[in-house]
Design brief:
Five copies of one chain form a homopentamer. In chain A, 55% of the residues lie in helices and 15% in strands. The first copy, chain A, has 354 residues and is an alpha+beta fold. Chain A folds into two domains: 283 residues, Beta Polymerase, domain 2 (2-Layer Sandwich); 59 residues, Up-down Bundle (Methane Monooxygenase Hydroxylase, Chain G, domain 1), CATH 1.20.58. A seven-stranded mixed β-sheet of chain A has the order 2-1-3-7-6-5-4. In chain A, a hairpin with a 4-residue loop joins β1 and β2. In chain A, α5 packs parallel to α7 and α6 packs antiparallel against α7. Chain A is rod-shaped, with a radius of gyration of 34 Å. Chain A starts with a helix and ends with a helix. Chains A and B meet through α1, α3, α6, α7 and α8 of A and α4, α5 and α7 of B.
């Protein structure tokens, strides 16, 4: 619902209004500038103020990574330097975008979701990541609230003999997307563990809470699906080279990412099916327990009600009740009662209720 | 059902018959005439009678906005001035149309739905909005029963430096559609709050009424979906420039609206899934409560039925019942009864029924 | 099932065998011959024997309307005059066709369903209508069992200034199809009322019968859908002018009919969703009532079973029961019983069962 | 399951191995040779040994019909004469094929299913029919276990003036397919009757068995659907003349068969919907009956438990119980009990439980 | 879940990293080298170290089959000899791939799943098989954990007159795929038997365990479907000759495999439908049993509660109770009780509860 609320506050503003709709943050944006080519790779952390981005074509490939998109003025400066469309800037700020790929004249704009699974609260945290893929530069914008999965990419960049050093911005972009998609598997793994726990709980002691957890998890999967599904088309379009700046040598790698996304989708579907089956099992567990309770009631009641009746009969005060005066009357009454109880017991045994 | 009823009254009339099918209204139609170009912007409210619409090409762009479509003769005059097809006029009057886009020789005809959420009665109110998009003019027809979301557009028009002042009718049309779609988010937000309320209610004290509210809400979502779904194709067709009068510079903006519509659709789907899950939870709550009731009955009955039986036994009137004459007979009976009750109590504890 | 039965009786016959499969009828077929052009319009009812159909091109447009298709020999004569394919004739007679459009060299063959809603038996009655659309003639074949919706068309034809008088056979065909589709709205309105009635019944006093009515209605909607769905393609093909004899000036009108058909389909879907929701509500109503019953039983039983036990205790015949001899023993027993009853009462209040 | 078992026994064999997988049969294959043209039609039953199939082009059209495909050597001889591919022969023998159409250089290979409904065991029997459609010959292979629906075709062939005598092999093939599809209607009719019976049973006395019959029938419909669905594409491909040997004059007839197949499919869907609805009704019937039972228990228990309590009170042995000594004490007790019973009775009446 | 876990351990590694993700294995990989042409066929088992794979074009077709893919260095050597892309090698090692077909410049890469059904644990075991199809060579990589289904192919290769000896690598590849698909039928047969067993169990003595088995089986079918579904496209692409190295003479054979895959899919769907129906039947069985229990309780309680009341009445201690002093009072009481019991008995008989 958060999405709808925040979105509605923006309504009425002209398009291209740079308003940040996300969690409030106050610390300065962390800006990381990496330049590399076959020979060298430099990495600097600069403050937003120092940032001087006059493109220097001689230096090879430029990767600017921002941790935080809440500084609208910084974004505006970057937008001016790289010639970004006002709607692109607006979309980077609006962290409620769905994943998409848009082709502009001088760059390609990609929006994705990075995901974390909060084990404590058992819910997905998602963070928007935007990429601006140009011929000689790549800009990446992270919300910067939950974490970073790009460390492995930085390490690879430092390795002189890594393939990434000799490829273009498209390969860098692929590597970053791959890092994000790889992280999805970790999230799925956590969810899978959670599902296993619920499965155990279902058999041991399912209660109303369990059902709500299942539905909660189902909802998380729907959200996850919404983050992953559009990715399929984005990476598919890149792989078919329908967008500029993608070289043939990156194609097999993009096809690989595409396969991973499909695998994530299929695991998601499997999880959904499992959760649906678990609702069935829960329902059956509940009605099973009901049956248990009813059985106990029925056994106790049907055994004792006739016995109580017999006791009641001999508690009547008629003057002329021959049994009352028999020597073994009392024993006789017990005998009848024992017979009835035994009969009932045998009957229930036969019915497999006991 | 209103739709079917009203529609059927029209059956048998020749096509193009101008009959208003909507809520009855008697006040005169409010006509607003706005003309603007880069230099100036004039806005006038005129009475239907004064309306003189001879197009004056030198004046820039003309926007005529009508609040109310119940004045068939006024519509006929407008139709004559702008050369509208008889079926176009009929569709503007018939407020039960589904959203659509029709291309005529000299104009494009667009039908949309504006939506409000009536918090009191918890139901959607929808109002039809029709646009006639010409090269130099844009006509908008609102039913005028619930409200107006175009105020922000008027304000932007008054701003001399706003982009809208330098663009054509296509950008004006985009701005109006965007205002309507932006309002959908407000409606979704209200529905989202309502769903949260029901969710709380479900856990606290679900009754039969709750289920009906859920189904009611589901139905509203279906109606909402019917209003939004065809929009996707309309705006998609505009963005792909399959219709006349759309300039390339408006394309990124239309793509933006398109994204918003998709976002509305996805939120709708999420809400539907949540409501479906809530039916499950309701059903389980009801059967849970049943279990609760059964448990209490069973515990009470199974504890006291054997006790009553024992009391019954010692209420029998046999002459020879040794226990009756024992000194501690009475205490002995209480002892047996206490033992049985305690045994039952332990059994229920073990079964986790208490 | 009627369809399958009748159809199977025809099996084994060579194709093109003219056998009438429908309700048996004996009265002569009513043949109506209408010719019109801009200047004049003549309408005659002729007996099948008198029918002379040598086409007279000079007379403008010829519309022959038959009320009844059970006279195979008459059909054969008509087929010979207008050059109809043997399978066309067979399909006109076989009133179990699904709606379809077939293009032959010299004419277009259209099959549709006219619908009535029988309020008494609460079921749909459908009647087949076939059209033969030629360049200068239109033949229409109604089963003639339930009614006629073409009266409004006849009236319009008599009006000298009506557009229909100046258009071709395609416009006449459109007008007839429009009349049939308009009638669908009346049928939907009736079904909608019926659904509202059931909705009220559901809340007041749902019983097993209600569920069967809901399923019955669902089935009717499936039948209705089968009659309407193929129409979409038929009218769509006409509107796109994929078939001969359709002039551009009829296109907007056909698009209008197309919209109406979509509207019928959407209303149908909404009704289906409503009925599905009603099954849920019925199920919940039934289990709710069960809960009610269980509550009453539980309250009565759990209150009185302990009381009965106490009474039983003091009905025991032990010699040494001190309470029996107390002055206020009886009052003391009532005191205990009142306390227990009150405790139970408070417990149930707290549980909100009372 | 039979299909999977038999199929697995073939696994490991090279493709084109001629192994008969079907019911074991020992009688010789019945071979029928029919030749016809406009002037003459001869029909002979020959033993497999006599079969001499050197094609004689001068004789018109040759139709060879085999009742039984268990004689692999006979098939091999036929395959050699007509130049059939080894996989074609394998598919004819393997009676677990799904319907399909395969185009080879010199012939078209069509596989279909003939169906019977075994009323006793209430299950579908299906038999594979394969056609080899050449320019001047048509071979048909039936399993020959259940029956034959081609008799009507033979009769038509004997009729000198029948259209079939003047048309090519495509028309003969159409006639045979039409005979098979016509027979589907008879099968549907039988299933429809069966469904009606179950519907009655549902209302009268539904038990666990009924549910299983419904599911059994659903399964039969799934099987039926699997036999009919691919036919749609087969006949559609023939009608669009995407395969050789089909002449334009057969097109309207194939379109006719196509319509019949659609009709069969729609009836199937209707039946499935009906059966699904019947599961709902069954479930509701069962819970309804439960309600009935619970009501009776509740009424009896809640009426008598308080009465028993009152009787218990006056069965207590306190010394000082004034009522016991009243003159009308006994009548007074009956009075209270009658009042309580009456009160309960009125309460239940009000609740509509009685 | 295994898949997600293992996959996540690889995250962060550069693409093309050769890491084996599968069951741990230590024995050396079994390498089998087969060369054949029309005249000769040689088969050798070599140790990984001896493997010398310099391609010798003069020798005809080379088939290298590896049982085990856990030896990354061996794979690297093979990759170097045959010019395999680094991602291909990675995919061969990563045994969690979904079936796919990838076209590279010099070879076609195919991934499939081989399946076994573990009867003891009642679960599917799947093993990845990868094929590298070159013009003159075919490499096959099996995980080698569960078994081998290629023995029949080896036998056919030894047969001098077998078709396979005269065809190319495409036919060999088809034969191997066919062997795998054929084995699916055996797996389906086992699952089918298992389903039959559960069906019997459902009727005899369904318990909570049965439901879990059904859901377990449903899950296995989902996994099976995921292994088979992509195959359809793979073999379809081969059959349409969209990939290199496929000759026209293999086309009918590939079409045959395609048909088998469709048949597997359809059997899967049938099994899923059956299992869904079985959940319904289980649910109904459980509620049926509940009804049984309730009936017994109701009969016993409603018969004895009134009787106990009567006994209670005559156990009251009023001074003036005329019946108590009647000569046949006791018999009279028994008479009333017998009458009530009989009445109840008749009532239950009429209601068909007994």
């Amino acid at each position: 619902m958060a999405s709808a609320r925040k979105r509605s506050e923006k309504s009425g503003l002209p398009p291209g209004s740079l308003v940040y709709v996300g969690e409030e943050r106050h610390e300065p944006v962390r800006v990381e500038v990496i330049t590399y080519d076959l020979r060298a790779c430099t990495q600097r952390i600069v403050s937003p103020e120092e940032l001087d981005l006059t493109p220097r074509e001689e230096e090879g490939i430029l990767w600017v990574n921002l941790d935080g998109v809440h500084d609208a003025s910084l974004l505006e400066r970057i937008g001016a330097v790289f010639g970004l469309h006002e709607l692109t800037l607006e979309d980077i700020l609006n962290t409620e975008q769905r994943p998409k790929l848009e082709i502009y004249d001088r760059y390609v704009f990609i929006v994705m979701k990075m995901l974390w699974y909060d084990g404590g609260e058992r819910r997905l945290v998602h963070e928007q990541v935007s990429f601006i893929l140009g011929e000689k530069f790549l800009l990446s914008f992270q919300e910067g609230v939950a974490g970073d999965v790009f460390e492995s990419v930085r390490q690879r960049l430092r390795n002189e003999r890594a393939r990434i050093r000799s490829e273009g911005t498209d390969f860098l972009c692929y590597t970053l997307i791959d890092a994000i998609v790889d992280h999805y598997f970790a999230v799925l793994e956590r969810i899978g563990e959670h599902i296993s726990e619920i499965e155990d709980e279902l058999i041991r002691e399912a209660d109303h809470q369990t059902l709500q957890t299942i539905h909660q998890l189902k909802r998380e999967l729907v959200l996850l699906r919404k983050s992953v599904w559009p990715l399929r088309e984005i990476v598919g379009a890149m792989e078919r080279r329908e967008i500029p700046f993608v070289t043939p040598s990156s194609q097999p790698f993009l096809r690989d990412v595409y396969d991973h996304i499909i695998q994530v989708m299929e695991t998601l579907e499997t999880y959904r099916d499992m959760l649906s089956g678990m609702v069935d099992i829960y329902m059956s567990t509940v009605s099973n327990r009901m049956n248990e309770i009813m059985k106990v009631l029925t056994i106790i009641a049907t055994v004792f009600i006739p016995l109580t009746f017999i006791a009641g009969v001999y508690g009547m005060n008629f003057e002329h009740m021959p049994e009352l005066h028999w020597r073994w009357g009392y024993a006789f009454a017990w005998g009848i009662m024992a017979t009835v109880a035994l009969g009932m017991f045998i009957y229930f045994r036969k019915k497999k209720w006991m």
